[in-house]
Specification:
Largest sheet: 7 strands, mixed
Strand content: 5-15%
Structural class: alpha+beta
Strand order of the largest sheet: 1-2-3-7-4-6-5
Distance between the termini: 76 Å
Radius of gyration: 29 Å
Shape: globular
Number of strands: 12
Helix content: 40-55%
Length: 673
């Protein structure tokens, strides 16, 4: 079975369908060009190569799913090696004549089914038939011509266009954490760690401090949409569709993201394609996104963003989590759910300028490479592509001044919010969030200053670990109570987060965070189960966990760490945390010293944690009197809401009031008679 999927704006189904049928007809009439086949084959061979290289490193979940498909649906399981061999053999033998012969089947007369899926039905069968007739008319009139040949660059960057390569000015080795850190002549730091977890994976992360919190409110929308606009237009100096063809046959994916307190570029490449990944990073820093700005294409991007916001607003799960974030972070403008009208308030030119400014100075950035690669082979590439990124003339010396704190503040008192939305399959979701305030041991109560110390950082690290352990205990207790005893929840989770402030600075007298408990349940049980969860947390604070609770939490934590330490992503994240640590200036950037302190603090805690320690920590840091409770419930049909109004909602009170007023009026009429 051959299928084509077309995604389009709401209300433009007929235009999307016409475009899809037109291209299928073009392929049937004129065939596939050698260039198109070459690009498609290169992409297919790259997938087969990855499958073969990692044939002995398959995740158990992938193998499980294959075996389930075999036993339930009779799907063939041939193994990664054989599947890669068959794919490679078939792809290499493919010719345009084969593709053309298959393309002859692309006709609506050949058992074709057209299915339309819309949020609200607006397309009729007659309109679909009209589109089919129009495409047939274009074919009969000879209006569907052959595609013109297009030029695809062979590489992302040409050597003659590159500035002179940089050089390594400093080299440090940190054996405990396993990173070798190079400092390039333009100020960029590069950390390399070679692993054997996956033979065909190298993860890259280029990161710097400073994100959306540095932007004034008047420019927030411009900064928020900067990455989106730049990505759609082309952040590497090439249009996305052209870049996709340039990278055909290469396993190389690079993207950028700006958060509240950071900017970063993430990459995932094959060891053989690291050079392409480094070329993309160079192009990102040296390209001007404003040059890619075309009014017609920009308008299409804006419409896509408006439609994406509308789609998210119709998704109950998205609406639920956006409401939680907005309320738990104090109704900040930075967490306010976006509206379609916000897209037009954003200034595209300012967004492009913000993106250019965010990724222009290499001396602000550090980069991590983790995976199966040869460091000696990669080192010249680092000097050639990263070391050659020029430093802007207006670059300023970097200081250790704390980042601008975001306007996040957990609300005081109890905040209750019930969301009612239409659902196809009725269910409820509930979340209850409590603030965590960890005393900052490095805060001077007299001067108000914070000076990072090794002892203070160890205490903060320890208390954060206890918060994470306590949230795991809460999750398992609620699972035992609400699922296995009452049988009223489908899923349950609890976790601790410290996203309110920059973790590398931790200014102020307290370290702020939160514990969020979330579960899905029967539509009528949300509020009641949220109350039960609150009672369980209060009991944990008053009486503490059992010894068995603590032992289980420790064992789960150790097992999680054991599994995570065998993932490249774990070490990439760890390098970023070590580099941005508040202790880095204190220990002169000694990553081993910070790593050993962190690991020692965690091991000492896991070895010595007791129910009393957890209880005292919760009593000191968890504030249950301040909380946010959000419940998502299905909205009943209109006739049900009118005939049986719910007195707990504003709508229900209005209906009941109207009924009462109407009844009172009828009674008065009868009395007058």
């Amino acid at each position: 079975m051959f299928s084509v999927q077309i995604v389009c704006d709401e209300g433009k189904v007929t235009r999307g369908l016409a475009a899809g049928l037109r291209e299928m007809t073009r392929a049937r009439l004129h065939g596939i060009s050698e260039q198109e086949l070459k690009i498609a084959a290169a992409k297919q061979l790259a997938e087969a190569e990855q499958l073969y290289v990692e044939r002995d490193q398959t995740y158990c979940t992938s193998l499980r799913d294959e075996l389930v498909g075999h036993f339930l649906r009779g799907e063939l399981v041939v193994g990664a090696e054989e599947e890669a061999r068959l794919s490679k053999a078939c792809t290499e033998k493919m010719r345009t004549t084969h593709a053309d012969a298959f393309g002859k089947k692309f006709s609506v007369d050949a058992s074709c089914t057209i299915r339309v899926m819309e949020g609200r039905r607006s397309t009729t069968v007659e309109e679909i038939e009209a589109v089919v007739r129009e495409i047939q008319r274009e074919e009969d009139a000879g209006e569907i011509t052959e595609n013109a040949m297009f030029q695809v660059p062979s590489v992302v960057l040409k050597d003659e266009a590159l500035p002179p390569p940089g050089r390594v000015t400093e080299e440090r080795s940190f054996p405990s954490v396993g990173f070798e850190v190079l400092t390039l002549s333009n100020g960029m730091k590069v950390g390399m760690k070679t692993t054997d977890f996956l033979d065909d994976q190298v993860l890259v992360r280029c990161f710097a401090k400073g994100g959306l919190s540095e932007v004034p409110e008047s420019e927030y929308l411009d900064a928020l949409y900067a990455n989106t606009i730049a990505t759609e237009l082309g952040i590497f100096g090439l249009k996305p569709e052209i870049l996709s063809d340039v990278l055909a046959g290469k396993r190389c994916d690079v993207s950028s993201k700006t958060g509240t307190y950071y900017r970063r570029v993430d990459g995932d490449t094959s060891p053989t394609d690291i050079e392409s990944g480094l070329q993309l990073i160079h192009a990102l820093f040296t390209s001007n996104v404003r040059d890619m700005l075309v009014p017609e294409e920009l308008e299409a991007v804006l419409r896509m963003q408006e439609q994406a916001i509308r789609n998210r607003s119709r998704n109950p799960n998205t609406l639920f989590h956006e409401t939680i974030r907005y309320l738990a972070y104090g109704r900040s403008y930075m967490t306010r759910p976006l509206k379609p009208s916000d897209v037009r308030k954003m200034r595209p030119l300012r967004a492009c300028e913000h993106f250019n400014a965010s990724y222009s100075d290499p001396s602000e950035f550090a980069i991590a490479l983790v995976g199966a690669f040869d460091a000696d082979r990669v080192r010249p590439m680092l000097e050639k592509y990263l070391g050659s990124i020029p430093v802007p003339s207006d670059s300023k010396p970097h200081d250790s001044k704390p980042l601008t704190p975001a306007t996040f503040k957990f609300p005081s008192g109890v905040v209750n919010k019930t969301i009612r939305v239409p659902m196809v399959e009725p269910m409820a979701m509930a979340s209850i969030i409590f603030p965590i305030n960890i005393p900052n041991p490095d805060h001077d109560a007299v001067t108000g200053e914070v000076v990072a110390t090794v002892e203070g950082s160890a205490k903060i690290r320890r208390m954060k670990h206890i918060s994470v352990t306590a949230s795991g205990i809460i999750e398992r207790r609620l699972l035992a109570l609400l699922r296995f005893k009452f049988g009223e929840i489908y899923t349950c989770s609890a976790g601790a987060s410290f996203s309110y402030q920059d973790q590398s600075a931790m200014v102020g007298d307290v370290i702020r965070g939160d514990v969020m408990i979330s579960f899905s349940c029967d539509p009528d049980a949300g509020q009641r189960l949220a109350a039960l969860a609150l009672e369980n947390v209060v009991d944990l604070i008053e009486n503490g966990p059992t010894l068995e609770d603590v032992k289980t939490a420790v064992e789960v934590e150790r097992r999680t760490l054991e599994v995570s330490a065998k993932e490249n992503s774990y070490w990439r994240e760890y390098f970023q945390a070590l580099t941005n640590s508040r202790l880095a200036p204190v220990v002169d950037g000694d990553l081993d010293a910070i790593f050993e302190l962190s690991e020692r603090t965690r091991e000492e805690l896991l070895d010595g944690i007791t129910p009393a320690i957890v209880r005292e920590h919760l009593r000191e840091c968890l504030k249950v009197q301040d909380r946010v409770v959000v419940v998502l419930r299905p909205r009943r049909a209109l006739w049900r809401r009118v005939l049986t109004p719910d007195p707990t909602t504003a709508e229900g009170l209005v209906v009941m009031s109207c009924v009462g007023i109407a009844a009172w009026g009828v009674m008065r009429c009868f009395k007058r008679r």
